[in-house]
């Protein structure tokens, strides 16, 4: 009923090589996974703690936009604040919030 399977020495050598290759692949995959986990741990050690920005700047208390203007973007320079609208870029003073310049877009 349960006859043992007889293998040639050539087949046995091939199976041994295959077994060693699979074992080597397993070891390489485990090492790669450990390196990946190690990189994630060292690169992102403080993921859950909020970081404080290195550069802090003050914004004006209020900026009054012209009537009917739809703001779409905002940016800030050293002493100015720019608000991009549908048809213009409005540049305000960062200290006072007063309108300094209007650049019309085509």
Report a brief summary of the structure.
Keywords: Membrane, Transmembrane, Transmembrane helix. This protein has one helix and four strands; from the N terminus they run αββββ.
Total of DSSP H or I helical runs spanning 4+ residues: 1
Strand content: 15-25%
Spatial separation of the terminal alpha carbons? 89 Å
Q: From the alpha-carbon coordinates, what is the Rg to the nearest angstrom?
A: 33 Å
Overall average pLDDT:
85
Question: N-to-C SSE series?
Answer: HEEEE
Helix content bin: 25-40%
Beta strand count: 4
The structure class reads alpha+beta
Transmembrane segments: 20-41
Keywords: Membrane, Transmembrane, Transmembrane helix
What descriptors fit this protein?
106 residues; alpha+beta; four-stranded antiparallel beta sheet; 1 helix; 4 strands; membrane; transmembrane helix; DUF6476; transmembrane
